[in-house]
Design a protein that fits this description.
alpha/beta, globular, 92 residues, 22% helix, 3-stranded parallel sheet, 2 helices, 5 strands
């Protein structure tokens, strides 16, 4: 997986990321096992950039809950956006 430096931090981040709206049941019901398998497969494929937000999921925040439900000692960049803080937009 190709990586580039992330802004001024200089962290090596995958150029392809995973948007996690789809693991929050907003496009159809997905169980926890499938959600975790999706995130793990993305990570194992070399992705270290994951996008989520407090509004992703039914109920709100379900994709974040599932993302953080995976216990990992590996470094991954977690990008989030809230309606209250537009400065949370970290990547383009």
């Amino acid at each position: 997986m190709l990586r580039k430096q992330f802004g001024k931090l200089g962290w090596p981040v995958s150029v392809v990321g995973l948007g996690t709206w789809n693991i929050g049941n907003q496009w159809g019901e997905i169980d926890d096992t499938t959600a975790w398998a999706t995130i793990r497969a993305a990570y194992e494929a070399g992705m270290t950039l994951f996008d989520t937000a407090e509004s992703y999921g039914i109920p709100n925040g379900l994709s974040e809950k599932r993302f953080w439900g995976i216990k990992s000692s590996h470094l991954a960049l977690y990008i989030t956006e809230t309606w209250h803080n537009s400065s949370a937009r970290l990547a383009k």
